[in-house]
Amino acid sequence: MSELSRLGVRFLLRRRGPLGRLAAWSVLETGQTFLLGLALARALDDGFLAGRQGTGLLWLAVAALGVAVGALGTARVYGAVADLVEPARDALVRRVVARGVRDADGGAVSRLTQQVEIARDTFAGLVLVSRSFVFTAAGALIGLCSLAPVLLLVVAPPLVAGLALFLATLRPLARRQEAFLTADEAVSTRLSTVCAGLRDVTAAGAEDATADAAGTLVDREARASRTLARWSVPRVLALALGGQLPLLLLLFTAPWTLERGVTPGALVGAVAYVTQSLLPALQSLIHGLGTGGSRLVVVLRRLTAYESGTQDPATEADAPRPGAPALEVSGLTFAYGPGAEPVLDGLALVVPRGGHLAVVGPSGIGKSTLAGLVAGLLVPDAGEVRVGGVPARSREAAAQRVLIPQEAYVFGGTLRANLGYLRPDGVPDAELTAAAEVLGLGPLLDRLGGLDAPLGPAVLAALSAGERQLIALARAYLSPAPLAVLDEATCHLDPAAEARAERAFAARPGGALVVIAHRISSARRAELILVMDGRHALCGGHRELLARSALYRDLTGVWDGAARPSSQPARPL
């Protein structure tokens, strides 16, 4: 059994209550199906054909009553479907959001706003059409058997054969549907890139090459579309075999069945069962399950692949290595778009465990871009970033690093919940208090009223930007991740508070620190300094960079090699 099937079975087993209610209301709804043919047969045989008009009208009234009762069941069915579908949607949302937060998944928003909703709507539609077919077919077949068992022998074999043919096409149809969606996504991605860079394409004289590349993808999508369309033929055959052939057989075998005791009313009732119940139900099933089912399988397969970590098999065997450096960057190249100049070009550096790196450079030079690559938020064009020995965008790397951005987020609840958010197992009070003390959070803790004081909207609004940064820093300090990346995370703190925070992170046992510097004083506290200057970068210690880098001397305000104390750079970082 596939992983997707196991997930589906486990979900349905946990929702036995809604499934039971859905079945109960569906049985009530099916009453009108059963009564339709039976009432028509009795109205003709026992009523109108026998000259008893009142009896005939009474049976028609019974059929009308069945329709009213069935409508009541239908109204309740939708509530039962919601009880089944909405928990499925909520479970998918939780999985997508958990991965997005845990692994810094850049595609989580697309999956949350599009694929999850597609799965929800399609699942609801499939539950309705599948349930309708099962109970409608059961009601009609039982009705046929009650009219005359020989009628069941005429209708059931082609119905079963048509249904079997349709079910046999579902798996290959899902594969063709997935191939078409993949080809369509490739075309959309390529065209969005080309449209954004049309001027660059024209300027470089690359019209023919660009058109050929796009044309190849369009041709691939066209082939996938034609293959998918060809699989509609078996569905049409299945509908003809299971829904239309029984009607022809009923008419063709009418003399034979009438000779064997089937009454004219029973024959009319059988025709009503086929035309008014079985054929519409089978048609809805084939169109709904054939299109929606394949789409649901494709979407769920993608969502569960992202969640189970099977999307990138190359990273499944990766595991953090105890002796590996905290951060390894090799040949790293990144540009914001195909026609843009690289922000980073061939960058290489190593931060050992327990190391402390400060990244300095003028504003807009790419320091935060580097932080995004280390955090796995951006995909490099070339080269590799490894955190704790594993690729930065792998699932395993998420536990090896924590990123503290410039904009600190504090959520409602309590200070304890905010500080321990990255520790699902909970944080002892002594550890919380020690972290608050070492980071200078004590005065704020006392002012708010302790770890369990509520952080309501008024309190959150009253927090200063610096206080929010202190809370975010403490949250990251308490996380189990050995590598901390501070992306100007202390910009709202004064120089003394910034120094205190950086020294605390650098002193974490077994921890490493990367600081995207807001003040040049951060570089003076670091063992290793990376100076970013356009596409070029130099890495070394303070004295080494004073001798080798004019930009570093400019930033520090030191020109003669003699260090003068300064907390602010000569040029903005």
Concise account of the structure shown:
This protein has about 575 residues and is of the alpha/beta class. About 65% of the residues lie in helices and about 10% in strands.
Describe it for me?
The protein is of the alpha/beta class. The protein contains 20 helices and 12 strands. The strands form 3 sheets. It has a 6-stranded mixed sheet with strand order 6-9-10-3-11-12, sandwiched between helices. Strands 2-1-4-5 form a 4-stranded antiparallel sheet, covered by helices on one side. The protein has a two-stranded antiparallel ribbon with strand order 7-8. Strand 11 and strand 12 form a beta hairpin. Helix 5 packs antiparallel against helix 7. The radius of gyration is 34 Å and the shape is elongated.
Secondary-structure blueprint of this entry?
Layout: H1 3-14, H2 16-48, H3 53-103, H4 108-147, H5 149-196, H6 198-203, H7 207-230, H8 232-252, H9 254-259, H10 264-308, E1 327-334, E2 344-351, E3 356-360, H11 367-374, E4 382-387, E5 390-391, E6 401-404, E7 413-414, H12 415-419, H13 429-439, H14 442-448, E8 454-455, H15 457-462, H16 465-477, E9 483-487, H17 495-506, E10 512-516, H18 521-525, E11 528-533, E12 536-540, H19 542-548, H20 550-556
Parallel strand pairs: 3-10, 3-11, 6-9, 9-10
Antiparallel strand pairs: 1-2, 1-4, 4-5, 7-8, 11-12
Coarse morphology = elongated
Proportion of beta-strand residues: 5-15%
By secondary-structure content and strand pairing, the structural class works out as alpha/beta
Number of DSSP strand runs: 12
Q: How large is the count of helical segments?
A: 20
Helicity, in percent?
A: 55-70%
Largest sheet: 6 strands, mixed
Instruction: Please give the order of strands in the largest beta sheet.
Output: 6-9-10-3-11-12
Instruction: Report the average pLDDT across residues.
Output: 81
